[in-house]
Amino acid sequence: MNRQPPPDPGVPPHRIGVYTPVRRLGEGGMGIVHLARDPAGRQVALKVMRPQLAAQEEFRRRFRKEAEAAQKVARFCTAAVLDVGMEDGRAYLVTEYVEGPDLATVIEEQGPVTGSNLDALAVGVATALSAIHRAGVVHRDLKPSNILLSPVGPRVIDFGIAQLAEAASGDTGVVIGTPSYMSPEQVNGERVTAAADIFAWGCVVAYAATGRPPFGGGAAPSVLYRVAHHAPHLDGLDERLRPLVERALDKNPARRPTAQQLIDRLLGQEEVAAEAATKAVSDSWTPARPRVPTRIASGGGSPVDGSPVAGSRGRWTVPVLAAVTALAVAAAVLSFVLRPDAGGREPSGNGLPVGRDLRIDGIPLHVEIASLTRKGQGVTLQWSVRNAGTDDWNPWTAFGSQSATAPFYYNSTAGVMLVDPSSGRKYGPTTDGDTCSCSPTTGTLAPGDTESYYSVFTGVPESAEELGVQIPSVGLFANVPISS
Question: Where are the residues of the annotated region Disordered (predicted)?
Answer without folding.
Answer: 278-310
